[in-house]
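Q&A FORM
Asked by: J.P.
Topic: structure of Response regulator transcription factor

PROVIDED:
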Amino acid sequence: MIRVLVADDEPLIRAGIRMILTSADDIDVVAEARDGREAVETARSTAVDVALLDIQMPELDGLTALAEIGRVAPRVRVLILTTFGERENVLRALGHGGAGFLLKDSAPQELIHAVRAAAAGNAYLSPAATRHVVDTLASPAATARGEEARRRLSALTERELQVLALLGEGLSNADAGARLHMSEATVKTYVSRILTKLDCDNRVQAALLARDAGLEPAGG
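REPLIED BY: S.T.
REPLY: Here is the structure written out as tokens.
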């Protein structure tokens, strides 16, 4: 079973997340926290695999709690709940060692998928939020920056470039597979290979690099 800690200062939000997660037969919500400080203490003292943290919480905000959990309970994988209005925090969350982020209005199945991905040691980045972050953060690249991005992308094959272009658009593996007539598993393999070749830690970094290089999806 994947043991989950849910931290949010609103009881109704916690109850809703609990209901969604416990509908999966491999996930158990073993603890809840009402603020960031309580989340840190619970992660330290309770056997937890994944912690789901809201950003806006009293005592300690989600990002500060994430950093503290990394210090006192490094075994715990942390997912951050965010909204479009908090997109500037996404890269900070990843920088603090977060296992990823997803939007508060995500579909229930996406929440379950994110927890499973985090528990398996993978990063989960909400496709919709990734696209929004990329659009926000990818300002027109300076010439030198664009040239460096294109130099790094030269290591990719044509097929890898096609997959990367769709990452830049914020598509999920399943949607990219449908666009390229590939299975989701095959796309996942390509994504792993792309991240390795580009020396990127996650999909957001790769997507930003694609934008810097001016990479566009075929026909887009």
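FOLLOW-UP: The longest strand covers residues 27-33.
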